[in-house]
Sequence to fold (206 residues):
Amino acid sequence: MELKEIVAFKSSPLIREKLSEIGFAKTFAEGEPILNENAYIRAIPIVTTGSIRVMRTDDDGREILLYYIRAGESCIMSFLGGMHHDTSKVKAIAEEETEILFIPIDKVNLLIKEFPEWLDYIFRLYHKRFEELLEVVNAIAFKKLDERLLNFIQKKSELTASRTILITHEQLANEMGTARVVVSRLLKQMEDEGLVLLGRNKIVLV
Fold:
């Protein structure tokens, strides 16, 4: 399998070759689970095409979006859980058709020893994910739900590079960790204000 564009390693053909040699690829359909909570982590995922959304579920089954993983990125939670032989604390789902290169856990330390830039890649991912999690905390603690909803739709739009987001109110509510009726009311309010246009299972950012 030829490793596609991985942003972090564009300047290092050697490590791209190594990743292709020790990793294995798998393609996931939109909405297909990639990693479930409480599952043991056997391999580290690197997204080569597509994107993943990472969710956290509470005791009542409510979910909230933590962050997205885009092409060229990996999941720092998988790194930490896998290296400590721990179970996953998050759930990862394919946001669209997504191809992933999986690096077996037992090869991670070898990569760190052979390629110092691999460790730099991990630290940069950790820094980015930490900032994104702080944004989630700040939004929940300090922003009104209508602000959070608009920001959420804007992020979805950036991720897909389209002003039309194909999503149901139920899915949107689940990813935001709130009730569908609340999301529907706020979306109607946003439509009245000229911020969005609502269609069947889609939202158009004006």
In short: The beta strands are 24-28, 33-35, 43-49, 51-57, 63-70, 91-94, 98-104, 164-166, 196-199, 202-205. The chain has a mean pLDDT of 85. Residues 44 and 79 are 6 Å apart (CA to CA).
